[in-house]
Design brief:
7 helices; alpha/beta; 5-stranded parallel beta sheet; 174 residues; 53% helix; Rossmann fold
Length: 174
């Protein structure tokens, strides 16, 4: 195997977390999720997870530094976050995967996952994506972190099952 790690990125509802979990189970690799890290952080602070700007800049930078350090030092690890692929851009031994999806399908997925209406899912998803893009631009000076140029594999998950997405990554891995 020419890749020692996998970095999975994508917007809300693209299936990046599902893919990361499936890969972790299939390959028996560790799985590190920025989303889980930040959800835990919010929980410890008793804060609303939807408040993107609630996390202090130093906490974001700590997570970024930890991800990059672990990408350089670890192997057999799956890193999942919106920024994972961009953070791994200088690591040729990390397979960088971008999950994409048709917006209407993303909103349906988010609605089902979060038990909200599709309209609410659309509103929340757009706001969160905008807030995160602004935040990443401010913190890292990057606005195109989901540009396919940073990735080895781009998968449109719109009409694929999770297992079909998994197979595409396994094919690229081998």
């Amino acid at each position: 195997m020419k890749f020692k790690n996998i970095a999975i990125s994508g917007d809300i509802g693209t299936g990046k977390s599902t893919l990361a979990r499936l890969l972790s189970e299939k390959l028996n690799w560790d799985y590190i999720s920025a989303g889980n890290y930040f959800r835990d952080w919010y929980k410890r602070k008793g804060m609303d997870v939807s408040k993107v700007y609630g996390i202090p800049e130093e906490e974001d930078r700590k997570m970024e530094a930890d991800f990059k350090k672990e990408m350089a030092e670890k192997s057999d690890t799956i890193f999942e976050s919106r920024l994972a692929g961009w953070l791994a851009k200088d690591y040729s031994e990390t397979l960088k995967v971008l999950c994409t999806v048709d917006e209407s399908e993303a909103y349906k997925r988010v609605a089902g996952r979060d038990s909200v209406s599709v309209e609410d899912a659309e509103k929340l998803s757009k706001q969160r994506a905008s807030d995160l893009a602004d935040k990443f631009n401010k913190l890292y000076g990057v606005s195109d972190f989901l540009d396919p140029k940073y990735f080895d594999l781009v998968i449109d998950t719109t009409n694929l099952t999770p297992d079909q997405v998994l197979e595409k990554v396994l094919e690229k891995l081998n």
